[in-house]
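Researcher: Predict the fold of Amino acid transporter.
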Amino acid sequence: MLLFGIMVNLILLVVMFAIIFKANRSVQGSRAQNVSSEDLKSFGYKQELLRDMGGFSNFAVSFSIISILTGAVTLYGYGFNQGGPAIMGVGWPLVTLFVLFIAAAMAELTSSIPTSGAIYHWASILGGPRWGWFTGWLNIIGQVTIVAGIDFGCAGFASALLFGNPTHAQTLITYAVILVMHATFNHIGINVVSKLNSFSAIYHFIGVFIIIGVLTAFGPHHNVGYLFNANFSTMTSGSTPYWFAFLVGLLQAQWTLTGYDASAHTSEETIDPKVRAPWGVYLSVAISGIFGFILLAIVTMSIKDPAAVAQAGNNAFIVAIQQAVGGWFGQAMLWMITIAMWFCGLSSITSSSRMVFAFSRDKGLPLSHLWAHVSKKFYTPNYAIWLITLIAFLAAIFNNVYAVITSLSVIGLYGSYFIPIFLKLRAKFKGVWTAKDDGPWNLKNWSNPVSVIACVWIIFLVILMTISPSDVAITGSYTLHYATGKIFISVLVLLTIYFFTYAKNRFEGPHLGSYAEISKRLQKKDEDLAITGDPVQH
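Model: Structure tokens for Amino acid transporter follow.
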């Protein structure tokens, strides 16, 4: 595992900086040709949002939602129990490597089509309303469950710090209070929320540096080689080999590295969106990957009693910090992390409510007229905000549901990422998407291999999360085994039934504006192939 881990980390660094170099050359070439950013009118929408967000602000949105002080921390115990220290030393960089391919493919699409509809618009443009509808639904499933995962994780930390050994009821009450706070801020204080979101990115940087600095000063208990230890796992048995437990443990990193499409969603508010928004998508993953690895490495090397950390479950990170630092200083660090989670949850409700609003505006949800409503007093999608809050709370009522929530958010979000990346590959194969459709941020001849790797990883990831063991106690006598897969498949079946019985003939999709032309090209190419059966001539 040591040799494999070193190789993965080296490959990660080479790929990370190679993509940065390639994309930067493309951007510089476009600058030399005076390629300008396209305004929102090209998509058939009126420019209603103030376009004054700079490059750092755009990056900060995704960086705050990724929040390595949330995902990497709340699922620390889950990852540690599955794969032990190697999940941090090998698993984290392995996931970061493949997510960089996905982020690069999405950055290319952001540069080509910079609209707040983002993933939903991309799928509609490249595949038509049907693809757009399923993409929108998958993204909403991911958005709502990620709100639940973030705020329930925050509630777990806060209740543990407040009550010591909280009951499920105490955690649920804390969770409800946090959700109501976030919903209220988003409902009535959007100006305050915007300022808090900007402050959140700076707070995360400071928080990570403080934790790294303090743990380094107190001195790690293990050497670097401990990060590649593949001998510790509480989940292995005669029927569960270590390699499978390790793969399941990748959920820790995979759930953390989500939400970077937020930079694409805020492209309508970003100056020079065809360049700055894609950099926000890509760099938020790259920087989170680097600092997340350093944070996890220092914390893991500081563990003194691995068995106690493993037994702590969702509170494993708390126990690891207390072992390393202890006392009031350790408590202060844990409260600092909890506050970072609070910021992350606030941003997440802002992002998810906008997605629900945008999709409802195009009549993609039941009772769309309600969720597309905007408060005349506060100018916020108030009903959408409270809908997400209610569903997020209900999702966490049962015991042992945290791994299911986080797995569903990964499946939903990455499923929605897959569709437009795949559709763009299909359009390029058919000769519909050409070089003139690329934005200034693109990878030229690397584009297709990067997109193929991204699609393969997402397919592998969705299958892995679907078949991963997950038990949820519904009642005292009934436990739902393999809950994640069963719930996801059930939702897909219900969505398919709903689409073909109702939405198919009523959902027209979003405005495409000037991008209606590429959709027509794609449809015509499909019709020609259906008639002649001849391969596409490039």
